[in-house]
Specification:
Elements lengths: L1 E4 L5 H13 L3 E6 L4 E6 L8 H4 L4 E5 L19 E3 L2 E3 L5 E5 L6 H14 L3 E3 L17 H14 L3 E4 L6 H7 L2 E4 L7 H8 L5 E4 L6 H13 L5 E5 L17 H8 L4 E3 L1 H5 L5 H10 L4 E5 L17 H19 L5
Parallel strand pairs: 7-8, 7-14, 8-9, 9-10, 10-11, 11-12, 12-13, 13-14
Antiparallel strand pairs: 1-3, 1-4, 2-3, 5-6
Helix pairs in contact: 3-4, 3-11, 6-7, 10-11
Bound molecules: phosphoenolpyruvate and manganese (II) ion.
Length: 339
């Protein structure tokens, strides 16, 4: 159930509705909108009677929500969510490009790549300090030293940084250094991590689980929002199929489906979907044509020497071309949604 308040509702009237909701043993989540506040009723065990709210001062309507995800749903919030990261806005009307290496390897490597991607047009810098690797013998990331390098990159270039958190124990640390905290595909249903992300003051970039349906992915976002953090960016990064021509299969249909179901921004990571650099440019073009709100792309100045995901990392000149091409596509068909 969603309680939609009048535009003129006062804070006291909103409080009164919250108290009635809590009196029912439910959780109340006020959702500030463009010109009015709505209040989500969560945790209800059965149907909630709209009549309990309709007579209260300042209440416009009480709308039942039919989807399993509530705060994430467009039924709860019709207008697109915009997420501010420093000077950058992520969401409808913007194309946000996040670029950088798979992993932070050294000061020099990170700065060289950051300077290049900034010049090419990237808005945020990415790089893992804690890496989820399939093999325990592969490079695991520099840990806190990598986070410190990210902070230096931000200081020197002005680019906000995105980096992955792998577990509950290191959340405080990652949150301290990152501008956007990434939850990777392998952790999409790590519910204690999602709950901690919901208490974070940072925006969360939530990747789709490699075998997750869109409903499961949106329910994972719901975990974060239910704890009070409404700054969630969804990231499609490909799902596991039977093919061998790419590492995963990029599911671009997720873009229009998510945009219809949810008000949250959605970006596309063609690098982890493809697993090889020759597919990254065409998939990026397609993602922007499909009206994704952004791209997350791996770039390395020496991919053959990269400590992880070199095969899918673009050379800097390839990234220049990508930025030029996707901006041109965005100018033709990305600015306006024709849902
Ligand atoms: C990454 O972006 O560094 C990463 C590990 O991606 P994913 O979780 O999508 O595999
Ligand atoms: Mn990677």
């Amino acid at each position: 159930m969603l309680i939609v308040m009048e535009k003129t509702a006062t804070p006291e009237q909103i409080d009164q509705v919250v108290k009635v909701i809590e009196g029912l043993g439910c959780m109340a989540r006020p959702i500030p909108g463009g010109d009015r506040v709505s209040i989500g009723v969560l945790n209800n065990k059965g149907p909630v009677d709209p009549a309990l709210f309709l007579g209260l001062p300042g209440v416009k309507e009480a709308v039942p929500i039919t989807k399993p995800y509530k705060l994430v749903s467009r039924e709860t919030k019709a207008e697109d969510t915009l997420i501010r990261v420093g000077e950058i806005t992520i969401g409808s009307g913007y194309l946000t490009i996040i670029a950088g290496p798979c992993a932070i390897e050294s000061d020099g490597q990170a700065m060289t790549i950051a300077e290049h991607v900034k010049k090419a047009g990237a808005h945020l810098f990415r790089g893992g300090a804690f890496k989820p690797r399939t093999s325990p013998y592969s490079f695991q990331g520099l840990g806190e030293a990598g986070l410190k390098i990210l902070a230096k990159v931000r200081e020197n270039t002005g680019l906000p940084v995105v980096t992955e958190v792998m577990d509950f124990q290191t959340f405080d640390l990652v949150e301290h250094y990152a501008d956007v905290v990434q939850i990777g595909t392998r952790n999409m249903q790590n519910f204690s991590l999602l709950k901690r992300a919901g208490e974070s003051y940072r925006p969360i970039l939530l990747k789709r689980g490699m075998a997750a349906t869109i409903d499961e992915w949106l329910m994972a976002a719901e975990y974060i929002m239910a704890q009070g953090n409404h700054q969630v960016i969804l990231c499609e990064r490909g799902v596991r199929t039977f093919v061998h021509h790419s590492r995963n299969t990029l599911d671009l249909s997720a873009v229009p489906v998510v945009k219809k179901e949810s008000h949250l921004p959605i970006v596309v990571d063609p690098s982890h979907a493809a697993g090889r650099r020759d597919q990254v440019l065409p998939l990026s073009r397609a993602a922007v044509a499909a009206n994704a709100h952004g791209l997350m792309v791996e770039v390395h100045h020496q991919p053959e020497k990269a400590l992880s995901d070199g095969a899918q990392s673009l050379y800097p000149e390839q990234f220049d071309l990508l930025c030029q091409q996707v901006m041109a596509i965005f100018n033709v068909c990305g600015r306006e949604d024709s849902l």
